[in-house]
Amino acid sequence: MRHGPMDLVPELSIATLEQNATVASEQGFGLLFAMFNQGKAPFDDVRNRQAFLYAIDMEKVVQTAYQGNATPATSFLQETHPSYERASTVYALDADRARALLAETGLTSFRMMCTNHGWVQLATPIIRESLEAVGLTVEFDERQSSEAYNAITGPENVNAYDVLVAPGDPSVFGSDADLLMRWWYAGDTWTEARMHWKGTESYTQVQTLLDEGARQTGAEQEATWSEIFNLLSDEVPLYPLFHRKTTTGYDADTLVDFQPIALTGLSFIDVGTTQA
C-alpha cells in the first residue's frame, strides 16, 4: 500500500485492498435506526413498532449488504461499549410473532421514508423485502437526509411519514452512555418535533431515569442505564437496527504502532513511520 491509510473502506473493496494492505474492522456505535411517528396511527401502537422489528431479517441485512461488517443490535449500545447490557427485549427475525402482532392491530400497510446515503441503500431493499414477507405493503420514499428531516419536522408535518430509517453516530462527540441516549431521547427536536413521543408515559419514564442516572456514579448509574436500555427495547420509539464496524486499510510495514479506531477518521497519536 503506497498511499496513506484509508478509513471507511467500502465492503466490496475489502478483499482487493487486503492483497496489498492490512484491513481491520473495529466495532463502533454508529448505527442505522428506525424512528416511528407516534403522533398518529399506526405506530402510536407499540405492537406495530415491535412487529416492524421482529419482521426484519437483520442477519441477512448485515451479511448480504455489509458482508458481516455490522452487528445486529442487542441493546441501544454496541456490545463493545463499556456500559453495554443486553436488553430485556432483543429483536431478531420472528416472522410468526410479527404476523401475530399485526393480526392483533390490523396493520396492513404503511409509509417508510429512508435516507439515500450510499451504504444505507444497500440495506433498505432487504428491510423492505422482510416487511413485505410478513404481509405488509410498504410505500417506499427515499430522500436526501436534509430533505427527509425538513419534510417530517414540526407539528404541521405530523402526517408526513410513518417510519424513518436513517443513520446516526453521536459517538463522534463522546462515548458516554448518557450523552448517546440524550442525543435522541431527551431533546425536543427528536422527541417532540420528529417522533412525537414526548408526553407519553414511556417518554416521562425515560426522562426521570436519565436525570436519576446523571446524579449517580458507578454501579448505581450503570443499573439505571440498564433500566433505560430495557425500557427502550420494549417501547422502541427510535431504535438501532444494527451497529456498524469501521473498516480501515493501512500499511503496517510503514506505519509503526498505527491503530484503527471505531469512529470515522484516523488517529496518528504515537504513530511512527519507516521506509517501505
Outline of this structure?
This protein has 276 residues and is of the alpha+beta class. The chain is built from eleven helices and nine strands. The longest helix is centred in the last third of the chain and has 18 residues.
Output the keywords.
alpha+beta; 276 residues; single chain; two-stranded antiparallel ribbon; 37% helix; seven-stranded mixed sheet; Dipeptide-binding Protein, domain 3
First-residue to last-residue Cα separation: 9 Å
- Please report the total strand number as a whole number: 9
Q: Helical amount among residues, as a percent range?
A: 25-40%
Task: Report low-confidence residues grouped into runs of 5 or more.
Answer: none
* Count of runs of 4 or more consecutive helical residues: 11
What is the element layout, followed by pairings?
Elements: E1 6-7, H1 14-17, E2 22-36, H2 46-55, H3 58-66, E3 70-72, H4 95-105, E4 109-115, H5 118-121, H6 124-133, E5 137-143, H7 145-152, E6 163-168, H8 177-185, H9 188-191, H10 201-214, H11 218-235, E7 238-250, E8 255-256, E9 272-273
Parallel strand pairs: 4-5, 4-6
Antiparallel strand pairs: 1-7, 2-6, 2-7, 3-7, 8-9
Fold and architecture overview:
With 276 residues, this protein is an alpha+beta fold. The protein contains 11 helices and 9 strands. The protein has one domain: Dipeptide-binding Protein, Domain 3 (Dipeptide-binding Protein, domain 3), CATH 3.10.105. Strands 1, 2, 3, 4, 5, 6 and 7 form a 7-stranded mixed β-sheet that branches. A two-stranded antiparallel sheet has the order 8-9. α2 runs antiparallel to α4, α8 packs antiparallel against α10 and α10 runs antiparallel to α11. The longest helix has 18 residues. The protein starts with 5 loop residues before the first strand and ends with a strand.
